[in-house]
Each structure stands twice: as structure tokens, then as C-alpha cells.
Amino acid sequence: MAIGRVLLGSLLLLSLQLGLGGNPSTPGAPVVEGTPSSEPAADTGTWKGSHPGARLRRAPAGPCQLRSLALPVVELGLGYASEETIIFRYCAGSCPRGARTQHSLTLAWLRSQGRAHGSPCCQPTRYADVAFLDDHHHWQWLPQLSAAACGCSG
Fold it and tell me: Which residues pair with 67 in a beta bridge?
């Protein structure tokens, strides 16, 4: 039990030293990571607070990019009982309608004719696994829980 907590604490400190964690003084506050993609975007919002019923507030416009939240495992909504906090990464922002691939060119053409709908969206292009210690002192491994990179699609 104590060894698992020490190991988890060491992993958390290592992730913070590597710049993988958010600001520990503001749990639940989003953190923008890395350099933005080349596409301009508007943020979809940030969580204000980390309690049930927290309200979403709009953030200033920004490019499609990777963001982070320090989130208690119980707030993942996946049914795990754990007092641990993980760094959940997600993609936020909007994308231009500029054509960059054959798919984008065709989709833009179909949209202009009213035969396709929607717009390009900011979404994960790679995922990362997340592990944590549950309340029964068992390691839980959640494959592809967190975004690792973002890009515009569509």
C-alpha cells in the first residue's frame, strides 16, 4: 500500500518535472500545452471549478491545441473509485475551412453544393494511456484515455 503511494507520488513528480502536469495550485484549471497547430481556432471553453454542476465559461479565441485538466479519477465518469488525481488532456479550438488534402477539397466542394454539412473540427490525432491506483490498491490501466496530439479534421 505505502509502496504504491510512493511510486505514484514519484511518477507525479516526474511528470511535473517533465512539464506534463498542470499548475498544482489551481486544480481543475485548464492548461494549454505545446505549440498551437497552424490552424486558427476558438476555444470551446474551460471548466470553472471541479465540482459536480460546475459551469462552463467561454475562453478567448485560440488555435486548435492540446489542453490539460488536473481531474480526480471519480470525475472521469467511468465508475472508478479512487482518490487519485490524473492529468486529462483534450483538444480544444476550431479549425479553418481551408483545403489541405484531397478529402478536404472534396468535402469543401460538397458543402458548397449543400450535399455535406459541418465544418472542420479540432480532435485528437494520437492518444495516451493513463494508469492510477484505485481505492482497492489495484493499478487500473485506461488505454487511450487522454489526447496526446491534436489536429484539424474535415
Answer: 32, 90
